[in-house]
Structure formats: C-alpha cells, structure tokens
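Hey team,

Filing this mostly as a record. A colleague (T.K.) asked me to run one chain through the structure pipeline before their review meeting, and I want the input and output archived in the tracker in case anyone asks later how it was produced. No errors, nothing strange. Just documentation.

Input sequence:
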Amino acid sequence: MTALDTALPGSTRTVTRAEVEDFLFAEAALLDAQRYEEWLGLFVEGGRFEIPTTDAGDTPASQGGYFVCDDWDLLRARVKRLRSRKAHAENPASLTHRMIANVRLLERDGDELSVAANFLVHRARDGHTNAFPGRYAHRLLVTEDGLRFRLRRSVLALERLEAGARLSFIL
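Output structure:
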C-alpha cells in the first residue's frame, strides 16, 4: 500500500489505487461503447475536460494552446452533439479501443485526488487507424458514492498529429 491508500486528514473515506483503476477502466468502457450520457455522469457539475496541444507544455488553459478546453457547459454540449447527427465527423461514430496503465495516486487534498495514468487510444474511422498515446492528469473528487472527475485532462505524447487524424471523439 502507498501512503495515499490510507485516509488522510480532511478526507471522508479511504481511496485505493485499485478503486481509481476500476473507475478509469469503467470510464474507458463507457467511452468505447459510446455511452456518453453515462460518461458525463462521471463528472461533478462544473467539471472540466482538457486536451492541451502537443506543444503547450504547462501553458494554462486560460492562455490557449488547447485542442479541447471544455468547461461544464461546453462539455454537456459536446456530449449532446456526439449523440446527434450534427457531429458529422463522428457520424457514424469512430470505433475506439482504450488501454490504461501505470495508474498512480499522486496527491490528496481533502476530498480531491490527483491521479496520473498512461493511455493508448486506437481509433478506426474511414478505413484508417490512428494511435493516440499519452498520459492522464486528472483531479478526482472523492464522494461517498464513488469517484467523480473535477478535471479530466488528456496530454498527448505526440510531436504532432498525423495527417487526417482528428480529435472529434473523446480522448
């Protein structure tokens, strides 16, 4: 067990790495099955979703340099659009396959947990397959009902996107 596997001052309950892994694995399954409404339910109201550009470094979202920088309203609109025929780039939806590894609990501040993990998302669309490797830098809220995203951040481990690669799906 790591130090973060035990309850810390200000926390309401213990969270283990296995619980965080199960949360991330369940989230990946929801996205691969295109169950976007259920996926949105994994966020706290007011949550954020971010994907910085490959050259953004530590640039704050307020200063630009992001492929995706969705506040709560934009995140809900993204899900609504993906569920409609208006998402032309995702109609029909891409086939995706997500793998998550090296999940680490980094820090806990009261009921907020900083989590890192590596990911690899394969996307098949229009006869092409793209691979998107990267790392997650999430902030999760610990609730009595389970974990919820306060910030879902996907940082690509690419120098650039390949020609024709799109981020019209949820990375």
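Quick notes for T.K.: The two ends are 30 Å apart (CA to CA). The longest helix spans residues 17-32.
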